[in-house]
Amino acid sequence: MEQAAELRELVNSRDVPADIATRGRIVLWSSEGRRRKDIAELLGVSLPTVDRWKIRYVEQGLAGLEGERPGGPREQVPARVRARVIALTRMTPPDGTGLSHWSTRELAKYLERTENLTVSWHYIARVWREESLKPHRLGTFKISKDPAFAEKVADVIGLYLAPPGGAVVLSIDEKTQIQALDRTQPVLPVSFAASEQRTADYVRHGTTNLFAALNVTTGEVLGECKPTRNGKDFLAFLKKAVKPHAGKDIHVVLDNLSTHTTPEVKEWLVKNPHVHFHFTPVGSSWLNQIEIWFGILTRQSIRRGTFSSVNVLIKQIRDYINSWNTTAKPFTWTATSSEVLGKVRLAATNVRKLVNNNSN
Predict the structure, then answer these.
(1) What is the pLDDT of residues 196-229, one digit of tens each?
(2) Facing residues of 173 across strands?
(3) Smallest Cα–Cα separation from 327: which of 245, 241, 220?
(4) Which tens digits make up the pLDDT trace of 123-175?
(5) Domain spanning 149-326: CATH superfamily
(6) Helix 79-89 vs helix 104-115: crossing angle, to nearest 10
(7) Cα dist. 278→161, 210, 275 in Å?
(8) More confident: 31 or 3
(9) CA dist 64 to 73, 92, 135, 196, Å?
């Protein structure tokens, strides 16, 4: 929803060149469910043009829509300002901004408001593109404060790169509060573009919680939707996930939710010593491979879907899982624990430098 609002602001702004506004409409209308053929006809562009700017936006966000615009002098900005843009982009927005991650416009406003540095959002978009910075996709980098961070990273990545012989490795987590949204307002025709808000209204029919287990070796996914998410629900799903692997050692990668360590779960683990839990570090859910699959599910099946009820949403998820499993392939994990820890140490060092520079 935040990205859609940003696109609407772009296409309705009088300061945005017509070619960039057209690209923004391509992406916005695509996200609202319009057919590429209709978009091309309404905007007077080719189908390859529609595809190109959709791909550019997925890869680079708003920065990708700027493209290569020949002619005219480039904005002249001192090197220190460019360095400041890059540094802030790589950091979590400060407390008090209310932001989870930077957009080009919010960063430009923040620089002017707090540091009296005036740059256009077009310039920031260009810097992001040149530096391959994509905060809209990656969010911001937060360094885990888990005292056992290194040990947990080595433990989990060790399972990915060299799983115990004959054992099964399952990556398990829950995707909570998935909303069943039903579009009720049709998208307005292009003639209203400048004067009307093209925001689709939705009726929210409820939510569901998806429990999912990814077999790290095969790539197959077991999923189950439940109306609640608690320790009892988790234990019931865990039993279902390990049942097909009776007689084998089973290693389960999990995050640190309290529902994963209830007394009932601990009691069950004692009675089932062939099942071993491996916890990702606090604040490091990216280390759990099921999160990769959740991201794919969201992009390909849920984000742009229209669901008239929770049951329709659940059926969509089930159908997607069944389809996924017909051609399932494992994710290829290549980063070693040493490489991950090295990058984290570098990031921590850079953050400390930035904090020290800002305090001086």
Answers:
(1) 334 445 667 788 999 999 999 999 999 999 999 9
(2) 212
(3) 220
(4) 888 888 777 777 765 444 456 677 888 899 999 999 999 888 889 999 999 99
(5) Ribonuclease H-like superfamily/Ribonuclease H (3.30.420.10)
(6) 120
(7) 15, 21, 10
(8) 31
(9) 20, 22, 13, 26
What's the rounded Cα separation, in Å, for the pair 91 and 116? 19
Domain ranges of the chain: 2-66, 79-138, 149-326
Q: Which pair of tokens denotes residue 182? A: 């039903």
Closest by CA to 245, choosing from 279, 218, 211, 283, is 218
Q: Do 139 and 103 meet the contact criterion of CB atoms below 8 Å apart?
A: no
d(CA 315, CA 319): 6
Structure tokens at 2: 């935040």
Position 39 scores a pLDDT of: 85
Single-letter amino acid, residue 34: R
| Angle (deg, nearest 10), helices 36-43 and 18-31 | 160
How many other CB atoms are there within 10 angstroms of residue 39's CB atom?
A: 23
Rounded mean pLDDT, 334-343: 79
Q: Are strands 221-226 and 202-215 parallel, antiparallel or unpaired?
A: antiparallel
Identify the residue whose tokens are 């992001």: 128
Structural contact between residues 28 and 8, judged by C-beta atoms closer than 8 angstroms: yes
For the 2-66 domain, the top CATH level (class) is mainly alpha
Asked if 65 contacts 57 with a C-beta cutoff of 8 angstroms, the reply is yes
Tokens 């904005």 sit at which residue? Answer: 75
Tell me if residue 294 falls in helix, strand or coil. helix
Amino acid at 293: W
Place of tokens 């040149």: 130
Let me know: does 331 contact 219? Beta carbons within 8 Å: yes
Find out whether 18 and 35 touch, Cβ atoms under 8 Å. no
Q: Which two tokens stand for residue 165?
A: 């012989």
Mean pLDDT of the chain: 80
- Give Cα separations from 106 to 15, 112, 113, 277 (angstroms): 16, 10, 10, 42
Q: Which two tokens stand for residue 39?
A: 């978009």
Residue ranges of alpha helices (H) inside 162-285 are: 231-242, 263-271
Secondary structure element (H or E) that encloses residue 339, with its range:
helix 337-359
